[in-house]
Amino acid sequence: MLSVLSVSATVTIVAVNDAPIVTTSAGITAFIEGNNVTSIPVSIDPGVTISDVDHTTLASAAISITTNLQTAEDVLAFTNDGTTMGNISASYNGVTGVLSLSSTNASATLAQWQKALAAVTYTNTSETPNVATRTISFQVNDGEDESVVSTKLVSVTSVNDTPVISGTPITTTAQDGAYSFTPVANDLDG
User: Nearest-5° angle of CA 90, CA 83, CA 122?
Assistant: First the structure.
């Protein structure tokens, strides 16, 4: 007769945090400088997506200009709409080209973060912007780990502003049936 030997073992399972994932959409975002008006900011990537298999919220994100940063003219910005983006706030460092987003107590949901990242804008404050294509990097953090960086390209188009005439109008004076003109210099901008 065979005897059965029973053996027991203890197995310890340790959970490992999975980093969040941020994915930018395909294509290039086009920015065009304003013609004698302040340039209109463009949403960098309305199609950006976020996922995290073991977190329902995120703590922070960094959006940065990682190629061809022009510190005197490039601006990244974010405005929380107050209804779909939770408590996400932002600060921009123009010297480094980094827009930092954060959620108090890491309480903003993945859906709120996705709306926030889709609302991040690029603009250029120069009348003669550097037209090199900018690489914008997106990275998110779940409070433990950072995602792999995902990038989006922004093309910059400079516009030859329409000339504008400004200055004081020319005045005329009638004297003894003859006209006398007092010329006034006009400033031409263009």
Answer: 40
Pairing, β 60-67 against β 98-103: antiparallel
- 88, containing H or E segment: strand 88-93
Q: What is the mean predicted confidence (pLDDT) over 9-35?
A: 91
Cβ-contact 142, 150 below 8 angstroms: no
Give the Cα separation of 89 and 81 in Å (integer). 11
Q: How many residues does the chain have?
A: 190
Closest to 72 in 3D by CA, of 91, 94, 92: 94
Residue of 20, 117, 19 whose CA lies nearest to 64: 117
Helix (H, G, I), strand (E, B) or coil at 62: strand
User: How far, in Å, CA of 19 to CA of 24, rounded?
Assistant: 16
Please give the pLDDT value at position 88. 97
pLDDT at 94 over 50: yes
- Check: CB of residue 149 under 8 Å from CB of residue 137: yes
Mean of per-residue pLDDT scores for the chain = 89
pTM, 2 dp: 0.80
Phi and psi angles of residue 110, each rounded to the nearest 5 degrees, phi first: -60, -40
Q: Quick one: residue 114, left, alpha or beta (phi over 0 = left, psi -120 to 50 = alpha)?
A: alpha
